[in-house]
Amino acid sequence: xxxxxxxxxxxxxxxxxxxxxxxxxxxxxxxxxxxxxxxxxxxxxxxxxxxxxxxxxxxxxxxxxxxxxxxxxxxxxxxxxxxxxxxxxxxxxxxxxxxxxxxxxxxxxxxxxxxxxxxxxxxxxxxxxxxxxxxxxxxxxxxxx
Length: 145
Description:
alpha+beta
């Protein structure tokens, strides 16, 4: 089972919004949000909350891809998120997430008994490639007790 399939099966919001996992690797995660009238805002594009969920879901997918081998000793948790809406989004949108720190550096901090934090940058784009939003989610790996 792929990370995308596992998240679709276990995270109700993924199913609610019909998010699609296009790519999930430790280097990059790409998710799409189809154009759905039930999730439109007052101007006919995806609601800000739906785009937030899309971007946060992309950040979580890359965290699992990059640190899935650490789950026996730490729990990934989102610490904070900041989003900026840049342009009007109409139609389907994609979120592309990238890690802001090398995996090895984060794991080294975990090995030292620390609770590492690391940013994940997410770009939200429409079909023409224009960036409609940018999000940064700070994640941590909380060591198990």
